[in-house]
Amino acid sequence: MTTAHDSATETKNRIAALEVATPQRDLLMDGLYRLLRNRASVVGLIIIAIFVLGALFANFLAPFSPIQINSGKGFLPPAFVEVGPNGYKSDPAFLFGTDTLGRDVLSRTLYGARVSMVVGFVPTFIILIVGTVIGLISGYRGGWVDNLLMRVTDVVYAFPDLLFFIIMMITLRDTFIGQMLNGLFLLFSSLAIVSWVGVARVVRGQVLSLKEKEFIEAARCIGARDSRIMFRHILPNSLGPIIIISAMTVPGMIITEAILGYLGLGLRPSTNPKDFFITSWGSLLLEGQTAINAQPWLLLLPAICVSLIVLAFTFVGDGLRDALDPRLQGTQ
Predict the structure, then answer these.
(1) Cβ neighbours of residue 115 under 8 Å, at least 6 residues apart?
(2) Interior/surface letters 260-289, b for 16+ CB within 10 angstroms, e for the rest
(3) Which ranges carry the ABC transmembrane type-1 domain (predicted)?
């Protein structure tokens, strides 16, 4: 005779056999296949890989130290220009010329990629963690918890992001926090504090649409804890939108760092050749703006790099959206 305990055990085993991990893995593999069939996304991935490798191995790829001052070689034009607008002749050793102090522009741009890549990925990771947790709790709990968290989200969302970044950098720049990692810690914190609201709203919407599904009800019936339901069943089924929004967040962080650096509020320039973070593309844009007539490539090269990396992430984000959208299944 089958007992109630045996019946519950059998039901639990069936639920485990139909765990969401397998279809979710199939969905992700199918999404990866569809992503790699998108030519624009592949080009974007290649560009991102080039910049990441260039940032990691800048000390091997850079022809000069980014802080090396070459006496008498200030404002040299790029090697592919015989004579620059200032009348100076180019030097083949400096592919993109030099700045006002004779520092190699290409080397400084390669080292500047380190800051932009880190600023793109680290704050985005923090934003995803905070936004996902708040969205999960808000959507799953509902009631006064949902109302409280969403009102906090609305308040944070209403505050102008760029203004908040500027206030934080100006106020705390000369404090102990502002000096950590040459100012990168303060920059990470500023970017993450007010940028999680979009992720929280997306995750909350996903949770609201999933928490009444049959497989969630089945998990409740077998006594699964709320934390397991949220992180083992609901979260894996919400990964598609989270992955897409993360790909769109990274270029936003890079642009924000470039803006703050251009305003003189970004990374503190370092004069120690052993430092991993020495300069940033935003700082190079500020330097190039003052020398646009004497050495245009001092401004153009970091500007082109920012444009390329943002465009690459946009291609990848669009490709991920198409690859992970279930409504497009079978159309590619």
Answers:
(1) 184, 257, 266, 267, 277, 279, 280, 281
(2) bbbbebbbbbbeeeebbbbbbbbbbbbbbe
(3) 113-317
φ, ψ for residue 331 (rounded to 5)?
A: -95, -10
- Domain CATH for 127: 1.10.3720.10
- Percentage, residues of the chain above pLDDT 70: 89
For the whole model, what pTM was predicted?
A: 0.82
The C-alpha atoms of residue 126 and residue 132 are separated, in whole angstroms, by 10
Number of domains in the chain: 1
Residue 238 Cα to chain centre, angstroms:
19
Tell me the pLDDT tens digit for each residue of 203-255: 998 888 888 888 888 888 887 787 888 888 888 888 888 888 888 899 889 99
Which domain range does residue 308 map to?
29-328
Is 8 among the domain residues?
A: no
Whole-number Å distance between alpha carbons of 198 and 204: 10
Residue 2 φ/ψ, nearest 5 degrees: -80, 125
